[in-house]
Design goal:
alpha/beta, Rossmann fold, L-2-Hydroxyisocaproate Dehydrogenase, Chain A, domain 2, 3 domains, 6-stranded parallel sheet, 3-stranded antiparallel sheet, 13 helices, 13 strands, 40% helix, globular, disordered N terminus, Malate_DH_AS, tricarboxylic acid cycle, L-malate dehydrogenase (NAD+) activity
């Protein structure tokens, strides 16, 4: 691929500073203050981090714009993670194709921009039913290496998906004031079903990231569609719940006056209302909460989407923070595909961690998707968290079953005379 004139190795934090006209080496403090995302200059995977950094950052670094949480890594590495072999690297030639389905929407546009900034992406395919050509033209002017291609309408969907490594699906209608995630179901369920059918036909080996709400139902829908097509791989289907983690980290850091880049709060369960369960007792660095603080933070994290919907007063939902969180999960997946042996994220996946068939928890990602589900987070939880965990199960179970039932009804309708 021809050189774009843009330093191929630029990390996201460095990119932002470069656009602001900063010098070619910036201090960790200056980047941390303005973006909260810092990349090390080392090629060694052990230091391949977007959240903690050495004293300075070179524009020659070959790291990704969003990295692993170093405090998270240190919290579970002693028990779970084998030490990376010395000299392990992400290949400098690593490059992948990413498709965004719903790329002209409120989440799709900023998500496309953030993915365009990743040095691990060689091609960015943007699909929507309308208005995507302008989005692609706009993004194509950004002097980062990835090629941007646009695809409009069902007739171009197959071409969009051919050869793609990661498919991200934010397509669907947004929440409006007074609308619950369940209200979105009938519209978004049909959209997700149709798009996942195309994924099954054209890139069945791809990682599939489901953003379209209600995630508690749309992920089971995707699973059933893939099963019908005979290509279901539970290790490669993900419900993107990263925004819950991002919010939990942000709110806890603010509440406890902590450095945000050091904070990691695992969030388990599902991705709606009370099914969102932040395990505040597992916060890193270790911090104590009063009962009142625990209840206040838990409820705010659970209702944060509504907080944004109400603040926008009918003008939309949480699109920017969702795009940021989705880009973080895309980048983690890219790093896993590229050989980073130390990638962990919370995500809604098929799971045996509880009696429910799907459950959000921390997982280890690898080249083939989910390598392991981390059960340690559910060990030794507080009484409050244990009760909340039991309380969320009936609602989450109902949402999962609703998604499965939707696909079965559609199949029955299609085969009936």
């Amino acid at each position: 691929m021809a050189d774009s004139g843009f330093p191929r190795e630029l990390s996201w934090g460095c990119t932002v500073q470069g656009l602001l006209g900063m010098a070619s080496t910036v201090t960790a403090n200056s980047v941390g203050t303005q973006s909260g995302l810092i990349s090390k200059p080392s090629h060694d995977i052990a230091s391949y981090s977007g959240l903690k950094a050495a004293a300075s950052i070179s524009f020659e670094s070959r790291s990704s714009f969003l990295g692993q949480n170093a405090s998270l890594r240190s919290s579970i590495a002693p028990r779970i993670v084998p030490k990376a072999k010395s000299g392990s690297q992400i290949s400098p030639e690593a490059s992948y194709k990413v498709a965004v389905l719903g790329a002209a929407g409120g989440i799709g546009q900023p998500l496309g921009l953030l993915i365009k900034m990743s040095p691990l992406v060689s091609a960015l395919h943007l699909y929507d039913i309308a208005n995507v050509k302008g989005v692609a033209a706009d993004l194509s002017h950004c002097n980062t290496p990835s090629q941007v291609l646009d695809f409009t309408g069902p007739s171009e969907l197959a071409n969009c998906l051919k050869g793609v490594d990661i498919v991200v699906i934010p397509a669907g209608v947004p929440r409006k004031p007074g609308m619950t995630r369940d209200d979105l179901f009938n519209i978004n369920a049909s959209i997700v079903k149709t798009l996942v059918e195309a994924v099954a036909d054209n890139c069945p080996e791809a990682f599939i990231h489901i953003i379209s709400n209600p995630v508690n139902s749309t992920v089971p829908i995707a699973a059933e569609v893939l099963k019908q097509k005979g290509v279901y791989n539970p290790k490669k289907l993900f419900g993107v719940t990263t925004l819950d983690v991002v919010r939990a980290n942000t709110f806890v850091a603010q509440k406890k006056n902590l450095k945000l880049i050091d904070v990691d709060v695992p969030v388990v369960g599902g991705h709606a209302g009370i099914t969102i369960l932040p395990l505040l007792s597992k916060t890193r660095p270790s911090v104590t909460f009063t009962n009142e603080e625990t209840e206040e933070l838990t409820k705010r994290i659970q209702n944060a989407g509504t907080e944004v919907v109400e603040a926008k007063a009918g003008a939309g939902s949480a699109t920017l923070s969702m795009a940021y969180a989705a880009a973080r999960f895309v980048e983690s997946s890219l790093r896993a595909l590229a050989g980073d042996p130390d990638v962990y994220e919370c995500t809604f996946v098929q799971s045996e961690l509880t009696e429910l068939p799907f459950f959000a928890s921390r997982v280890k990602l690898g080249k083939n998707g989910v390598e392991s589900i981390i059960s340690a987070d559910l060990e030794g939880v507080t009484e409050y968290e244990a009760k909340a965990l039991e309380a969320l199960k009936p609602e989450l179970k109902a949402s999962i079953e609703k998604g499965i039932e939707f696909v079965h009804k559609q199949q029955a309708a299609a085969t009936s005379p």
